[in-house]
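DATA SHEET
Item: assembly model
Revision: 1
Owner: S.N.
Input lines:
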Amino acid sequence: MKPAGIIGTGSYVPDSIMTNACLVETVPTSDEWIVSRTGIKARHIAGQDVATSDMAAIAAQRSLENAGVKAADLDMIIVATYTPDTLLPSTAAFVQHKIAASRAVALDLGAGCAGFVCALATGAQFIMTGMYRNVMVIGADACSRFLDWTDRNTCVLFGDGAGAVVLAPVFEGRGILASHLGSDGSGAGLLGIPAGGSRMPASEYTVQNKLHCIRMNGKEVFKFAVKIIPESVEAALNRCHLRTNDIDLLIPHQANLRIIQAAMETLALPPERVLINLEHYGNTSAASIPIALDEAFRSRRVGNGDVVALVGFGAGLTWGTVILRK
Ligand code: UT7
């Protein structure tokens, strides 16, 4: 097996910022509630004419420039998203055309907020087996398009954005060292968008009842997240014979500051070894980890040889960890 590693990163968030103060004008909530319960202070919201693939394509271009790879040399593009431009074709197909990656097979992967880590582990397999040389993995979500702005349980939490990485063969001992992925479909009802699929196609009823918007049992998802993050990180570390102490930077899915703090405590990781940026972006779903990863790589918070653990969790329920050495 050839080791696969990240050779370039890129990200994009829309310019328009919605602070908690903006939300308070239309939603029965408060800055105090949102900050104390979630840690979120602001989120970026895509303009009406911007779809998921538009944000993904910008992040993709930035990751290609960072990697020094031409779009024409990409063999594969995987877009992790729950907010596709259209149900058919895939968002990846739009991205492929926008960035002119004519040789690349383009497809989407659906695993909610765990989508990026699942897509990263999937894309890496094609390099490890020698089938492909350059694989782009994108996490992108326009969450704002699927929010019920009258539901304070959800609308204060999410934001829009995209992050991308280029995977390629790297030296032995570098790149992705191990991954651990899992699902528990018995929790499928805890987080999702009820209508718009084959179970409940769009109708006047579904639109009137806001069934195309995200619904979440926050408390149950919270409990699941607090339990699964340490379990998944430990399982992935075991696979590459490392220990929590070897992690130089943990990049968790940015859903809730309290979830991250609980995981840090269980894993006994000090704050300087955990990246938290959700106060600026909210929960950008599949984009949260690659946006944070881009920030960590570009700011040189991660140095050559450092061990990074990426851990995602969300709808499905689905979760995953990828351990890599830069
Ligand atoms: O990325 C996918 C994975 N998603 C997550 O990981 C999210 C996991 N869940 C969470 O982050 C938290 O459960 C939430 C932030 C969603 C909610 O926090 P909580 O501490 O679990 O609050 P809660 O749902 O138990 O609600 C507590 C109270 C309720 O009022 P009552 O019934 O006690 O009177 C809610 O109605 O807070 C109320 N509430 C709000 N109040 C002001 C709920 N949302 C709001 C709000 N502003 N935005």
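QC remark: The first strand starts at residue 4 and ends at 12.
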